Structure formats: C-alpha cells, structure tokens
Amino acid sequence: MSKNTVVLPDDKSVETAIQTLRKEKGNRFLILGYTATTPSNVLGVMAEGEGGVTEIVAALPDPEDTEKYILLKKDVPVDDSKKLVGKFVFICYTPDGVKPARKGMISQIKSQVVQICKPYSADFSIDSKSELSEGLIDERLGVKSAVTDQKATVKVQKEDKNTHQSFIPASTSSSSTSTSAPVIRKSVSGGQPVQTKIPTQSVKFVEGDEERFRGALKALHESKDELPWVVVAYSAKDTLAFVNGGAGGDSLRASFPDDAVFPFYGLVRVDLSDGKSHTQKIVYVSYTNEAIPPMKKADASTKSGAISVVLGTCHAKIEGSKPADFTDAAIKSAK
C-alpha cells in the first residue's frame, strides 16, 4: 500500500470521534494525525474536546513534525436572530517541522482526509499555530459580527434655500485592487444638479492571506504538476480569504465544500501540447453553491470584476454550482 494512501484504524475511533463532534452541543474540536505507535499512513485521533481556538492550540501535540487535520464545530448566529447553529471548519495544519518530501504529498493526502471529514462550511490551511484566531474562523464562516459592514452616510446639501439629500457610501479600507469610479450628474427637482459617485469596486484580503495567496499563485505558474491551481473565497463583504493551492483535479474539487456558504474563485493552469508545440491556458473557475443566500450571491456579483483582477490573467472560464461540475475534462475544454 502506498504511503500516500490514508488508512483508518480498525477500531473505528476516527469515525466515532467525528460523529461525537457532530452530535454534541456547543463548540467542539477534533484533531486528527499520526502517532508514533502506528504506521505513517494510519490516521488517528490525537485530541478532542470542548472549546475553540484556545483549546485547539493547547491540544496540538509536539513535536510538530507531521501534519495535523483539525475539524472545528462552532455555534454561530443565524442572520440577526439569537438562534445559533453549529457550523464546521476543516483546517490543515502543516508546521515547519514537516519534511519537504512529506509536504509535497500533503495535497494528495489532504484530499483523502477531506472526504472523511465532510461536510463542512469552510476549509483553509495554516503553517503556524499563531495564525489561528476566532476572528479568522468567523471570517471563513462569513459570520456577520466578524465583518465591519460598509454603511451609508447622509450628506445634506442646501441650495437656493432647498434641502436635497444624496446618499454617499462611506469610503472602503485599503484594497488589493479597484476600478475607476465614474461621476454621474443627477438633477434634483427644485435645485441644482447633485454629483454622486458610484462607489469604487474593491476587495481586500483577510489579514495575512494576501502573501499566502501570492505564494500559491507563484507556485501555480512554476509547478511541473498537472492542473496546478489556487483558490480563494469571497468570505465576507468586500473580503477575500485564501483557501488553498495545490495540483490535480481531485484536490481542487475537494477544496469546494458541498455546503459552501459563500462563493469560491480560482485559477487552474492547463498545459496543452500537440506534439509540435507546448502552450499553457489559465482557466478561471467560479463555484457558487445553490444554497448560498441570494443577497450574498448578489454582493459577490458586484465584486466579480475586482476579484478577477486580483486573480490575474486568464484565457478561459468555467462556472459550477457543485464540485462535480469541475471535472478534469471540463476544465481542460473550458473556453
């Protein structure tokens, strides 16, 4: 059996731990990994219990020479009500102590662990315990309280003893990209024309994610593997979160949760050869689950131009509403 093949223990301890995590009330976590007493490809339960980020960090075992997989259940509010619902986050933790040869296999191994831990609402990777925070988890889950909403301010103008109101959106914070903001002159009955600016279309990354995205994008262009990819998520208003980078159609599809609560976007590199020449095609992928609330879809749609600029040049595009829509054949034939 290949050491890249993930095996579950015969005692069903992993399956039991996952079931416990899902059925128990409150915030809970589960850490899966490999122990010194089992073969390197046999996944085991390393820690589990109640709590969130603080408890996870305290429970992560040393030495940090193998990757860990964290499944976190967090109770989050439903819309503006006081009702809470449990949502799940899958985290791949690859510390610096993992040997380079092992890191090269993580993408393939992770895709297998993902199938064991599904379903969940968000998926991301870290390489340091310090990256984990409750704010980051909320951002990934699209929790409203974790995002500073853009609110409109009212500007009152007095002209010729008449009062006219025009609503001017507050300026956004610094962003990775933006488009021009044309000015529209709109006449107001009984007074002079009022100039109203269309808000600049812009998106920013979750703090710390832009550097990781740039690294994954660089790897996409330099990789010698088939179908290298990079994926981001429109995790909150005007905000992108880095999801992951890797290679191969299976791991790409695994990065798209079946029950995604916000849209995912990415790039895939397709290498084309006819025996005489070799070319590359960059395919823009857009995954919008049908379960995503209409308001979130509409918001993401208004930022589609800014998101595509952040991702960079592409030659073709493919859209889908479920992971299975992004088959290798569909990606390679995208126009």
Features:
335 residues; Severin; globular; 5-stranded mixed beta sheet
Write the layout of secondary structure elements.
Blueprint: H1 13-23, E1 28-33, E2 44-50, H2 53-59, E3 68-77, E4 84-93, H3 100-103, H4 106-117, E5 122-126, H5 134-141, E6 152-159, E7 162-169, E8 177-178, E9 183-186, E10 194-197, E11 202-205, H6 209-222, E12 228-236, E13 239-247, H7 249-254, E14 264-273, E15 278-287, H8 294-302, H9 304-311, E16 316-320, H10 328-332
Parallel strand pairs: 4-5, 11-13, 15-16
Antiparallel strand pairs: 1-2, 1-3, 3-4, 6-7, 8-11, 9-10, 12-13, 12-14, 14-15
Verbal overview:
The chain is of the alpha+beta class. The chain has 2 domains: 13-144, Severin (3-Layer(aba) Sandwich); 204-332, 3-Layer(aba) Sandwich (Severin), CATH 3.40.20. Helices cover 25% and strands 33% of the residues. The strands form 4 sheets. A 7-stranded mixed β-sheet has the order 8-11-13-12-14-15-16. A 5-stranded mixed β-sheet has the order 2-1-3-4-5, with helices on both faces. The protein has a two-stranded antiparallel ribbon with strand order 6-7. Strand 9 and strand 10 form a beta hairpin. It starts with 12 loop residues before the first helix and ends with a helix.
